């Protein structure tokens, strides 16, 4: 085998190549960066090509797990942080947002009924940016409250069904992950997930609880997920297709 460093290294199960980037400044250390569309392996320029192939082969499963983990997470979308969308999702159902002026009130309030979210506002004149920011704040607060209550109940339900025990649950405000499970047994869930259908929320909850048995994405892990969520592939696909809309809030 030639000592010339390869530009890329292929792994059969991986649709993207591992891009090899040599560095004259690196002496011994090797680093790896995993993205949706590529994986970058930074190595010392003096490292033999055989060593690179050996390294990739030894880390094959880790690379596959990490790439799968990254591609399952939502990709950030550019959005106007001030402008509030005209509709919202709750459990996969689209709700329209309407504004109603009440002369008797001095405060903004949110009311939810059927397929409508009503923002009640005082009769005073407000500029568009203030109205948009206030609407966003009310909707996000309502969604977070709903998510905390729902996710707590859902985690307890599935933990009992799966005969596992988690240490703590935290509601997270993230644009890159739907959920996570630490080695200490702490579960994090993205509040924006409350906008997804219940069967999709169940998948994410089951996914994270399954990590309490298998802290990886091995076949054993997916076997556990599939046992309690037979339609997990459909749930993953739903998040890939609709995830960007959930991130608008």
Automatic annotation (TrEMBL):
Protein name from the UniProt record: M48 family metallopeptidase
Superkingdom, taxonomy of origin: Bacteria
Pfam families: YgjP-like (PF01863)
CDD domains: M48_yhfN_like
InterPro entries linked to this entry: UTP_pyrophosphatase-like, YgjP-like_metallopeptidase
Domain YgjP-like metallopeptidase residues, every copy: 28-241
Gene3D superfamilies: Metalloproteases ('zincins'), catalytic domain
PANTHER family for this protein: UNCHARACTERIZED PROTEIN YGJP, UTP PYROPHOSPHATASE
């Amino acid at each position: 085998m030639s000592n010339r460093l390869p530009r890329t290294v292929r792994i059969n199960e991986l649709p993207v190549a591992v891009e090899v980037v040599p560095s004259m400044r690196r002496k011994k250390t090797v680093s790896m960066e995993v993205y949706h569309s590529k994986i970058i392996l930074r190595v010392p320029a003096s490292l033999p090509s055989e060593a690179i192939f050996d390294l990739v082969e030894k880390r094959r499963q880790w690379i596959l797990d990490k790439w799968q983990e990254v591609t399952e997470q939502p990709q950030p979308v550019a959005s106007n942080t001030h402008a509030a969308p005209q509709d919202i999702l709750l459990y996969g159902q689209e709700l329209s947002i309407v504004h109603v002026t009440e002369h008797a009130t001095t405060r903004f309030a949110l009311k939810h009924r059927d397929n409508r979210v009503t923002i009640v506002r005082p009769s005073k004149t407000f500029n568009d940016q203030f109205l948009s920011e206030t609407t966003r704040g009310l909707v996000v607060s309502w969604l977070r409250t709903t998510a905390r209550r729902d996710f707590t109940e859902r985690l307890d339900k599935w933990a009992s069904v799966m005969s596992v025990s988690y240490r703590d649950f935290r509601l997270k405000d993230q644009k890159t992950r739907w959920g996570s499970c630490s080695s200490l047994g702490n579960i994090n869930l993205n509040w924006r997930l409350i906008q997804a259908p219940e069967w999709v929320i169940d998948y994410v909850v089951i996914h994270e609880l399954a990590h309490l048995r298998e802290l990886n994405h091995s076949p054993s892990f997916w076997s556990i997920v599939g046992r309690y969520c037979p339609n997990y592939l459909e749930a993953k696909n739903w998040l890939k297709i609709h995830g960007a809309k959930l991130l608008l809030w």
